[in-house]
Amino acid sequence: MYDATSLHEEFGGDRLPPGQRRTEEFPVLSKGATPSVDREAWTFEVWGAVDESLSLSFEAFTDLPSETQRQDFHCVTGWSRFDNEFTGVTFPTVMEAAGVRDEAVHVMFHAADGYTTNLPLADCARREVLFAWALDGDPLPADHGGPVRVVTPHRYAYKGAKWVTGVEFLTEPERGYWERRGYSNTANPWEEERYA
Ligand SMILES: Nc1nc2c(c(=O)[nH]1)N[C@H]1C(S)=C(S)[C@@H](COP(=O)(O)O)O[C@H]1N2
Ligand SMILES: [Mo]
């Protein structure tokens, strides 16, 4: 298994970022109710600055090369959960499948509850950014974003869209749901980039 829990070293910080407290729980934070997303009806779309737009069923998506990683999870509200084992497709694998064009500089994630979140392409083109469908060996629970969610262990967790339905490659930066409402656009936990 790929261990991503030493990621903090790249950011020059402790494993527990400043101002965070560790919890064994896994709280649920969503802007609204958990949408019911049927695995069989779910499709994953990739569009924008790509050579090939994709539209994949759950079966086709989970047939892409996947891996399990041990990761930490940092919520902007102050809790961190260590050693989560997420299984999924890495962001670079999706980039390769779609053929991301040179003019792509930014990414918008779209989700079934209308949530969006954005990141620079360079922050996404990392092995640790996973489209995950399993947690600790079990199907990802609906409250935590099942069938498939994004995880971003190098950024606060609002950068990881639950119930993800698509990825849009952009030629200019845009802001997502919380980024337009006062959360940090950059969201680096080791710099405590919480609110803008
Ligand atoms: N689609 C969607 N994704 C989302 C959210 C949301 O409301 N909708 N909330 C975000 C926020 S603010 C956080 S902290 C994490 C929480 O993930 P968890 O509920 O699994 O702890 O999901 C993020 N992804
Ligand atoms: Mo959050």
Q: In one word, what is the shape?
A: globular
Number of helices: 3
How would you characterize the largest beta sheet?
7 strands, mixed
CATH fold name:
Sulfite Oxidase, Chain A, domain 2
As a whole number of angstroms, the C-alpha radius of gyration is 15 Å
Mean of pLDDT: 98
The CATH homologous superfamily is called Oxidoreductase, molybdopterin-binding domain
Low-confidence stretches: none
State the separation between the terminal residues, measured CA to CA.
Answer: 36 Å
In CATH, the architecture is: Alpha-Beta Complex
Secondary structure tally: strands: 12
- How many domains is the backbone divided into? 1
Strand share of the residues?
25-35%
Which small-molecule species are bound to the chains here?
A: ligand MTE, molybdenum atom
Elements, N to C (H/E): EEEEHEEHEEHEEEE
Write structural notes for this entry.
It is globular and about 40 Å long. A hairpin with a 2-residue loop joins strand 9 (130-135) and strand 10 (138-139). It starts with a strand and ends in a 26-residue tail after the last strand. Strands 1, 2, 5, 6, 9, 10 and 11 form a seven-stranded mixed β-sheet that branches. Strands 4-3-12-7-8 form a five-stranded mixed β-sheet. It has one domain (42-191): Sulfite Oxidase, Chain A, domain 2. It has 196 residues and is mainly β. It is built from three helices and twelve strands, in the order E-E-E-E-H-E-E-H-E-E-H-E-E-E-E. The longest helix is centred in the middle third of the chain and has 8 residues, at 91-98. It has helices spanning 58-62, 91-98, 121-124; strands spanning 2-3, 21-22, 43-48, 54-57, 67-74, 79-90, 106-111, 116-120, 130-135, 138-139, 149-151, 164-170. The chain binds the ligand Nc1nc2c(c(=O)[nH]1)N[C@H]1C(S)=C(S)[C@@H](COP(=O)(O)O)O[C@H]1N2 and molybdenum atom. The site of molybdenum atom has 6 residues, from loops.
